[in-house]
Every structure is written in C-alpha cells, then in structure tokens.
Amino acid sequence: MGAPSKPLTVLGIETSCDETAAAVVRGFPPGPGEILSNVVMGQAASHRPFGGVVPEIAARAHVELLDAIIGQALDEAGVTLDSLDGVAATAGPGLIGGVMVGLVSAKALALAAGKPLIAVNHLEAHALSARLSAGTEFPFLLLLISGGHCQLMAAEGVGRYRLFGATIDDAVGEAFDKTAKLLGLPYPGGPQIEALAKEGRARRFALPRPLLGRDGADFSFSGLKTAIRQIVRAQSPLTLEDRNDLAAGFQAAVVDVMSDRVSAAMQMFRTAFGVTNGTSRLVAAGGVAANEPIRTALQQLCREQDFLLFLPPVELCTDNGAMVGWAGLERLASGLTNSLDAPPRARWPLEELAT
Ligand code: KG4
Ligand code: ZN
C-alpha cells in the first residue's frame, strides 16, 4: 500500500506495565506526526510500598482509570470516535492482566465505532517513537532500554527487526530499579539513582563493567548488581555520602558498558547495511533513554562514529499512549490491521513480528 493521501488519526492505548495511558496522534509515515493529546497516569505511588510493580494492583488500576483517560485523550484532541481512522492498543509484551484491559477496551471501541483495530507490539511502539518525533527513516540502529527490555537491533521497516544483541540477565532499567532498592530508594529507581549520582564520586568504589570489550553486542548487569549488594553489606548502615557514591559508581559503570555495546552494534549495523559515514542512524528508546548521562554518552559516541542520533523527548521515552497510537498509525498505513480476536501476549519478541 502506498503512502496515504490524507493524514490518519489514531487513538493509542497503553496498559502493559504501570502507566495507564491514551493518546491521539495524526500524520503519515515516516513522520514526524502530530500529538493531539497524550494522557499518562502513572501508578508508581500504588506500587512503591512493594518496591516494584505488582501485576494484580496494576491490572485493577488500569480497569479503574482507563475509561476516563481515553475520554480525556479524545476531549483534549478535540476528536470523536467517529473521526478516528483506527484504534490501537498494546497487545504485548507486558503484564498480561494490564494488556488484557487495554486490548479489550480497544476492541470494544473499534467494534462500536466500526473502526479498524491495530494490536501493537509495545517494543515496536518504543522503536517507532523516533519516527513520531523526528520522522527518522529506515534503516536505523535501535537501542531499546527499559525496565523489561535491553536490546540492540536493526529496524529495517515496520514489522522488520534484526536482533544484534540483548541482555543475558537483567534489563538495564531493572538493574537501576534493583540497585535503587539496595540503596533504600523508592521505585522507580532510575530517576532516583540519576539524582543521587549528581552528588556522588563515581570512582570511590571499584565496580565491574560486565562484557566490556567482548565480541557481539550482548549486555549483562547481574554482576554489577551483585557487586553493589556486597558493598552495601560491607558498608552498612549506609551514609548519604555512601549512597551518592554508589549511585554515581553504578551509573558510570552502566554508561561505560552502554557505550561499548552500542559501539560494537554500530559496527554490526555498518556491516549489515553498508551505510556510508554520516547517514547511519541510531535511535534510543525506552524509559532508561531518559537518563541524561546516557544521552550525553550516546551523543559523544555518535559524534565519534559518524552516526546521526535520534533521541525522542523524555515523555516519549517512558511508556505513553502516543507511541502506541503512532505504531498503530504506521501499521494501518501499511494495511496491517487486526481482527477482533487478536490475542493479548505476555511474551512477544520483536523478531517474531514479521511472522
Ligand atoms: O519504558 P518504561 O517506561 O517501561 C518499560 O517498558 O519497562 O521504562 C521504565 C524503566 C524503569 O526501570 C525506570 O527506572 C527506568 O525506565 N528509568 C530510568 C530513568 N527514567 C526511567 N532509568 C535511568 N534514568 C532515568 N532517568
Ligand atoms: Zn516500555
């Protein structure tokens, strides 16, 4: 199917983790698109007492919040269900209870309004967020770093992804969250660690850089977390200074590993696509891409390696409905819609999308 002649308008619904979100986006591929509304209701406060996301609490909160949030997204965008071209929702991967809430709501709206349903892969939504914000052309190297995912892959087109490397244990966001917990900081830990690290001395504690310099583009973070745990035990009770220094040391180790692994993937990308210098593209997406020192390190690396860097704005890096609406819009523009029996999936690797 060729490019649509008029812009498409799509409602996007996101409920796969602990953000209840809905948004309306308008445009056509490759973007940039227009975000007519983007309503995100975080549930972090409900999960904080437990130190992480509790699936049952998340699912119940989505049920309570979603209707009003969809209504608000449509109101703020100034559109009605009738004027939409499609209804998109995250169909996985994610916490299955939450995914079911969002997907079933999207099916009901699509059926009632007689609009196509688009079952969106959450990872593809993160992947395409740079097309929404900046119209990034394919192919691009994608660094997907979030609470549940840590991968480097080539994005060749809608639904077409080639994996270069992934974490062999914890996702990087998970490592931020677990380290924060060890330091007695509330969930979600990423922003907390980033704030403390500003006051800390990164070199006070010797911390490992797992897989640094190794072949391939895989990641590993469990060794780093274990090293932090041992230091926490030895230093206990931690002073504020200890906490700041550990946060700074952890973040510096993550930045070093990230730069090294991305650099390896850049070589793999060049080998695979033969892209000449200056036109290779790197997109960073996912909640951890909100981290300022990581953003700075990626900017530096792209200067050195002659890659163009696309960093979506922070509100499009963490979970949101606009990226889901946009991924839905891109699929709709390619004729890739779903029937009302599209299944919710807890597990749904991006490389399986093509099939
Ligand atoms: O993409 P996201 O909102 O949800 C998932 O799909 O996982 O990512 C959430 C993750 C959490 O682990 C959170 O701690 C991390 O992103 N995060 C950060 C920052 N902001 C969010 N990690 C490091 N620095 C940040 N500023
Ligand atoms: Zn996410």
SSE string:
EEEHHEHEHHEEEHHHHEHEHH
Rg, alpha carbons: 20 Å
Cα(first) to Cα(last) distance is 19 Å
Helix content: 40-55%
List unreliable stretches of 5+ residues: none
- Give the names of the bound compounds: 5'-O-[(R)-(carboxyoxy)(hydroxy)phosphoryl]adenosine, zinc ion
Inertia-based shape: globular
The largest sheet is:
5 strands, mixed
Structure summary, number of beta strands: 10
Strand order of the largest sheet: 3-2-1-4-5
Summed over residues and divided by their number, the pLDDT gives a mean of 94
Strand content: 15-25%
By helix and strand content, what is the structural category? Answer: alpha/beta
Figure out the total of helices.
12
Quick rundown:
It contains 12 helices and 10 strands. The protein has about 350 residues and is an alpha/beta fold.
Q: Which features does this protein show?
A:
355 residues, alpha/beta, five-stranded mixed sheet, 12 helices, binds 5'-O-[(R)-(carboxyoxy)(hydroxy)phosphoryl]adenosine, binds zinc ion
